[in-house]
């Protein structure tokens, strides 16, 4: 498949590169042998990206293509809605390239995310936390409609370059790292970009690879960055037909696995990683001869203020 986006660079040597974007991609695949000793369960450690999340990939593709097409040029401000990680990726890349950034995000995001974004120089507009990411999307649309000449509206939820980034990087990396042995791919849903892009690539390699999407089990949940599709504005890039199986995860189960990952695997992962692990362990237990791969979208440093750590520190 040919992409319209300028292909993201992946660095063969992480110590060499002309800019921070050269460090995006080629993240490690880790065996989770202590939390799931009975099966072959692996996780893609996306915090090895310089912005410390999987969102570096789509942010780079979106901005590269916008520059190539002339939609983004000096004098414009990059605008988007975010729950945090894509915003951090935009702010990091735009600091490197000299673009101002305005981000709409729920007021309920962790204080650490806000501090990181301010450190990169982003302007933040905090929206009603009850509306989750939907409120941020509506505010970004409002700002763009009022002053389209001022902004490049990146629209990560509807921009095709989001899923294309994972089709061209995440999916091929996983397939190569497992030497083609992957049998099940498990991913959480936010924009749907990771699941859609990597999932489409993997299905093209083998129709036998099972694709499992993971959502919160209820409209009101504590899984920051994840979407409960039935009660949310559905991202245009999300393909509801792609999954072979759809799984729902309780917030409390995700929190428990975040704690267990730190104590048993030495991995300080984010909340959506805990949700991914809850689902992936079930899939791995059901398929002990398979090779199950999930994605850990980010690390846990931005979530240490969350209440579930209070009894575990």
Question: Would you kindly provide a written description of the structure presented here, covering whatever features stand out?
Answer:
The chain has two domains: 20-48 and 163-309, Rossmann fold, CATH 3.40.50; 56-153, Rossmann fold (3-Layer(aba) Sandwich). The chain is built from eight helices and ten strands. The strands form two sheets. A six-stranded mixed β-sheet has the order 1-2-10-7-8-9. A four-stranded parallel β-sheet has the order 5-4-3-6, with helices on both faces. The protein is an alpha/beta fold and 313 residues long. Helix 3 links the parallel strand 4 (101-106) and strand 5.
Q: Please give the domain count.
A: 2
Question: Mean pLDDT, nearest integer?
Answer: 93
Supply the CATH architecture of the largest domain: 3-Layer(aba) Sandwich
State the CATH topology of the largest domain.
Rossmann fold
Q: What structural class should be given to the helix and strand makeup?
A: alpha/beta
Compute the number of strand runs.
10
What's the number of helices? Answer: 8
Portion of residues within helices: 25-40%
CATH class wording of the largest domain: Alpha Beta
Q: What is the CA-atom radius of gyration, in angstroms?
A: 18 Å
Order of helices and strands: EEHEHEHEHEHEHEEHHE
- Strand content of the residues, in percent? 15-25%
Question: What is the straight-line distance between the termini?
Answer: 47 Å
Shape: globular
Placed side by side, the strands forming the largest sheet appear as 1-2-10-7-8-9
> How is the biggest beta sheet arranged?
6 strands, mixed
Please mark out the parts with pLDDT under 50 across 5 or more consecutive residues, or reply none.
1-14
